[in-house]
Amino acid sequence: MNGYRIATTLLLSTGLAITNCVAATADEVKIDPLRSHASFSVNHLMIAPVTGTVPIVSGTITLAGDGATPVAVNAVLDPRRLSTGDPDRDGDLQGEDWFDTKKFPTWTFKSMAVTPGANATLSILGTITIHGVAQPVTLAASVVPRKGYRAVAHLDRHQFGMRVGRMDSLVGNDVTIDLEIATVK
Question: If you average pLDDT over every residue of the chain, what do you get?
Fold first, then answer.
């Protein structure tokens, strides 16, 4: 873990602006919900992907003394406001078979470790909770100068209890999540 520990609540997300965040000690910045979101993609009918967005509504990032390296990330997403561009599909996804947003109105991510890599990349190990089920996930993240962070994760929807009976095989299992996170300056 290279000495880096992180406490993160998802995001489904990760793109963070780090401008003006340099400090001698760890510094906590807030995620900007107006400029942050998670996008998702999953195959439908094994032909074309269904894509959508889920807003990141709150969160914090604790930066190391260098002002650039995250050591803790917390994020909360609101699946009640997800959008695929099709209101009927959005309603289905928010229903009991999928995200059950009445019972589970938020998704969270909490990181456990951050490992810096080459060329401003990061590997963020954490726990994502969707549909009331917590699962480990690794985000492949990168620093985007003056904009924040980007991250990608792959999830198996079945691990979160999302199955839709006999029609289940028409929807892919692998869900790709792309995160864009900016911070409040």
Answer: 79
CA separation for the pair 38, 14 (Å, rounded): 8
Q: How far is the C-alpha of 157 from the C-alpha of 73, rounded, in Å?
A: 23
Domain spanning 27-181: CATH superfamily: Lipid/polyisoprenoid-binding, YceI-like (2.40.128.110)
Q: Are 56 and 44 in contact (CB under 8 A)?
A: no
Domain ranges, ordered by start, for the chain = 27-181
Give Cβ neighbours of residue 99 (< 8 Å, ≥ 6 apart).
Answer: 79, 82, 93, 130, 131, 162
pLDDT at position 4 is 28
CA distance 94 to 11: 17
Residue 20: partners with Cβ closer than 8 Å, 6 or more residues away: 185
Q: What is the pLDDT of residues 26-81, one digit of tens each?
A: 688 899 999 999 999 887 766 778 889 999 999 999 888 777 778 888 899 999 99
Enclosing H/E stretch for 177: strand 174-181
* CA gap 175, 144 in Å, rounded: 23
pTM above 0.85, yes or no: no
